[in-house]
Amino acid sequence: MATLTVFTPAYNRAHTLPRTYESLQKQSCKDFVWLIVDDGSKDQTAKLVKEWQQQEKTFEIRYIYKENGGMHTAHNVAYENIDTELNVCIDSDDCMADGAVKKIIDTWEKVRDKNYAGLIGLDADFKGNIIGKGFPEHLKETTLGDYYAAGGQGDKKLVYRTDVINSVPPYPVFEGEKYVGLVYKYTLVDQKYKLFVMNEVLCDVEYQADGSSKTMWKQYLKNPNGFAFLRKVSMQYPKSTKRLIIDCIHYCSSSQIAGNRKYIKESPKKLLTVLCTPFGWSWTAYVRYKAKRI
Questions:
Q1: Which string of b and e fits 51-64 if b means at least 16 CB within 10 Å?
Q2: Euclidean distance between CA atoms 124 and 128, whole angstroms
Q3: Cβ within 8 Å of residue 25, ≥6 positions away
Q4: Which helix (H) or strand (E) holds 223?
Q5: Any idea where the domains of the chain sit in the sequence?
Q6: What is the pLDDT of residues 156-194, one digit of tens each?
């Protein structure tokens, strides 16, 4: 059995998925399985993957089709079907960096017995520029939340032990909504485990014009229950008073957008939620304004 599963959620990405495949073909170490979770694509994704499955002889390609439900539901399906020790998500518009699989396997062999949740590495753009900030030289281990609380910036590539990521609940699904932040599971893992720091680029990324990061203002309006849920979780594990207040204001706003009149009762910080409610209405107005301008 392979050590690593590279899983790729895909929704109408037949035009970018080939470069993800090419980056995996170029890996010097083939100790991995590639799992594509097709989130209801209507393009040629299925046809492409079938051709690759018939042609590829050096690593296994698995394909699962599901009805469209959003990125978090594709992650749920992936985690349910991964049987390797480690897993990493490489999005359908991104590439595995040259030599990344070998770096992951070699590093993991050195720290496997240290009870880490996994590894945290770097993302870079297609020109080789680090996304956000690199890791401080002295940083050998961290949680994801602690890294950002200390001033870390930019998306990072997370390699998790499969048993650890599956030890916390799956992403919830809210009727009519298709977004719950992936950080939910990572936050829960943070409470029990640390990640070993790899100061290496593991993924080359390109943000698409129709990706969730570019349409976030509209996502707030389309998926208020998902956002309220995530803010409520964040309020239970605050990294600072400032962050707690921001999360509470966002929780009020998303709950108001969702029409949830019980949000104060359901809040883990009820008094603070009462105080933040007027600011929540103000944030809601700003969200609606920004969404109209997209």
A1: ebeeeeeebebbbe
A2: 5
A3: 56, 58
A4: none
A5: 4-209, 215-292
A6: 999 999 999 999 999 999 999 999 999 999 999 999 999
Tell which residue, 131, 47, 145, 69, has the closest CA to residue 94.
131
Closest to 72 in 3D by CA, of 263, 219, 192 = 219
pLDDT per residue as tens digits for the range 24-61: 999 999 999 999 999 999 999 999 999 999 999 999 99
> Is residue 63 within 8 Å of residue 36, measured between CB atoms?
yes
Classified by CATH at the fold level, domain 4-209 comes out as Spore Coat Polysaccharide Biosynthesis Protein SpsA; Chain A (3.90.550)
Q: Which residue has the tokens 């957008």?
A: 257
- Within the chain, residue ranges assigned H as helices are 17-25, 45-55, 71-81, 100-111, 144-149, 162-165, 183-190, 216-222, 224-236, 241-258, 263-266, 270-292
Q: What is the pLDDT of residue 211?
A: 52
CA distance 245 to 239: 11
